[in-house]
Write the structure tokens for this entry.
Amino acid sequence: MPRDPAAFVRDHVHLGPVPLVPEIQLHQADDPIGLWELNEGEYRSTQPPPFWAFAWAGGQALARYVLDNPAVVASRRVLDLAAGSGLVAVAAAKAGAAEVRAVEIDPLAIAAIELNAAANAVEVTAVLADILDEPPDGAEVVLAGDVFYSKAMADRVLGYLRRCAKGGATVLVGDPERAFLPRKLFHPLTTVEVPVTQALESADIKRSTVWSLPIPAGSHQAAGA
């Protein structure tokens, strides 16, 4: 792990607009493969790949939706789960959320989230923690961009999201047709074409959908309490 995570982020990425969400500036890598190799070379045994250095398609779609539909988050407590760069968290803050927390397990992601929030003049609380096995913590809106990329991750994320929905939270997911998204459990809200890089997605455009997770029958909110 670099001694100064914020310095590492600043040294290896550049600040620029997000393709689908140009009103947001994000620290992004020019060379995904090179940064990935550097990341693994420094701490491959204990830390995940540098998800924080890229504007992933699902996150872009979700950030665009939040900015275009600010009432979803306005004056509400928001959680950006597995936040990566914090793109979705920044979008929620810009859209008028009362409080935004971005949770990640990578210290470099925490540094990136803080730098990206500062670059966009918004307040986001970055939290270094694995909360997927914990009960919901009171967020009124839970946002998750591009989290269904592996079976193990999908199973844990889905369990957490379902607990949040059962507790009455609005749960929205941005996903570009990843293999492990349990589509039958979600309701599609909108689909967009997201500009991406060949190095990350082997494509120039990735079709991505924003999904909502319905509140289960019998939950606190569904019961009208």
About this structure: Strands lie at 14-17, 25-28, 77-80, 99-104, 125-128, 141-145, 170-175, 187-195, 205-212. The chain has a mean pLDDT of 88.
